[in-house]
Amino acid sequence: MPSRFRLRYVFKPLIKLIAKALIRIRVTPNMATIIMVGISILCFVSLVIFRNLLFFSIFVFITGIMDGCDGAIARLTNKSTKFGGFFDSFMDRLSEFIIFFGLFIFNFNEILWNFIDMNLVIFISFLISIMISYSRARAEIFFKGDFDVGLMARSERLFYIFITMILAFFYGFMKVFLFIYMWLVIGTFVFRIIKIYYEIKRVDQQTHE
């Protein structure tokens, strides 16, 4: 089971408050999802066109908050649907791609410590980030329960980028922060796969008893 200290729980009161405000102006869950993607486009514009890490960071944070609002709106208005769940998941991956594509362009041909290619670091980071979410989705098809385990789930990934890019805006070390991010998501992916493996093994043993 995921920790009760997950950021989705920490920010739940704020998300619920924003969701209620959005409901008052008749924003539906799917509309909130589209708004979330729109804000991720602002992340891209801030970084690629204006090359401003501070604005980029702020929009990443808002993207993370809006990511929780669609589900909150659905629960508060009893409008949860299977398509809504699919649409939300699909758009989450799209927004993550947009953010990482911005980071990729911003760091194009950059080198860390004179030998680490940042293009490769960002590509691996995005790929593994997607696989973290995919592994949870696949596991929950076969097993009951929440497989949102490991340190760097989606909310934590966005929050890490938000915090570290603000620090990078003031103090630098952007490439170092992204390099650390890569290893954090790799560690999370490996941990999650191991957890899923042992769950499969446990279920198989129960089936054959």
Radius of gyration: 18 Å
N→C terminal distance: 25 Å
CATH topology: Four Helix Bundle (Hemerythrin (Met), subunit A)
Helix % is: over 70%
> Largest sheet at a glance?
2 strands, antiparallel
The H-level CATH homologous superfamily, spelled out, is: CDP-alcohol phosphotransferase transmembrane (TM) domain
> What is the name of the CATH class?
Mainly Alpha
pLDDT under 50 segments (min length 5)? none
Beta-strand percentage range: under 5%
CATH architecture: Up-down Bundle
Q: Could you tell me the number of beta strands?
A: 2
The helix count comes to 8
Mind sketching the topology for me?
Elements (H helix, E strand, L loop, with lengths): L6 H4 L1 H13 L4 H20 L4 H24 L5 H25 L4 E2 L3 E2 H25 L11 H18 L2 H35 L1
Antiparallel strand pairs: 1-2
Helix pairs in contact: 2-4, 3-4, 3-5, 4-5, 4-7, 5-6, 6-8, 7-8
Summarize the structure.
The protein has eight helices and two strands.
What does this structure look like?
With 209 residues, this protein is mostly helical. The protein has one domain (7-202): CDP-alcohol phosphotransferase transmembrane (TM) domain (Four Helix Bundle (Hemerythrin (Met), subunit A), Up-down Bundle). The chain is 78% helix and 2% strand. The chain has 8 helices and 2 strands; from the N terminus they run H-H-H-H-H-E-E-H-H-H. It has a two-stranded antiparallel ribbon with strand order 1-2. A hairpin with a 3-residue loop joins strand 1 and strand 2. Helix 4 packs antiparallel against helix 7. The two termini are 25 Å apart.
